[in-house]
């Protein structure tokens, strides 16, 4: 479904841009002697708008109002880059078409489409910073930007080659197709741009635990069968930053303290220990058992391994854990860990996490 939305957005955006360009050329008579100077900016802006808006709405499918609000800065970036790259591509094309230079049309078209495609990639990559928490990581942001530019440039080059091959196979465009030659070409460009972005912009399978409301009041019946705990002197919840990190909108958080709303990025593989001890514990929360559970991560899977001695202090999606058997975690699973007193009696406080294995709705 995702790829169809991207392809539809790409084709539609390209054709809308072409039609807007035709309006300026035929109805307003703007730069009729230099059509590329008018047409290319319209197509570049429309494609950049379409790809950016499509990604924002797919990332936040249940929040259209928030998506429109989030899209303001990304669309300004798309507008600026579209105008700049479109004008450069149009002016360059007109220069290369001059009789004293006269570069072959396929080469000029390929260069122009490369500029348009790369600007769409830059707009998509830069705007990602405003609607994804993942972009808070400088390394991840740079990787996404490079990938977007390379993918868009490659798609534009491929679209130009495919269009020229079609023209060669037909010899010359039939007379009845002359009027739609340009929209066919730009439709191919939009199709390939949408196709590559559906792959490069796929949801990130980065496992994370998002801290929910902690230590809220909830009446819990006493269970004196729970074992007693050692005396642990700890004042706040924290993570082991040698193994874990927070997914934030910037890389400047140096504190290891867990706060409501922060997402803890989990490693691709390994075992994360949850408990209350300071040593040998990756997620430490005061009041929990010294070793409450482990999360084993491997091959895009995460399994919660409860400590059988403290299964009564764990809930998954509101259901009490009944055994020490591993529980496969899925996207949006809610994990609740209850505090227990040193004398073995449940506290009225708990700490809640939401497990994510992709950032489909990162700002939710």
Describe the protein's architecture and organization.
This protein is an alpha+beta fold and 364 residues long. It folds into two domains: 2-200, no CATH class; 208-356, Tumour Suppressor Smad4, CATH 2.60.200. It has seven helices and 13 strands. It has helices spanning 2-27, 35-59, 64-70, 72-96, 105-127, 138-169, 181-200; strands spanning 208-214, 238-239, 245-247, 263-265, 270-275, 283-284, 293-298, 301-306, 314-316, 319-320, 327-328, 333-340, 346-356. The strands form two sheets. The chain has a seven-stranded antiparallel sheet, with no helix packed on it. The protein has a six-stranded mixed sheet with strand order 2-6-5-7-8-11, with no helix packed on it. Strand 12 (333-340) and strand 13 (346-356) form a beta hairpin. Helix 1 (2-27) runs antiparallel to helix 7 (181-200), helix 2 runs antiparallel to helix 4 and helix 6 runs antiparallel to helix 7. The longest helix has 32 residues, at 138-169. The chain is elongated and about 90 Å long. Mean pLDDT is 82; it is low at 215-224 and 360-364.
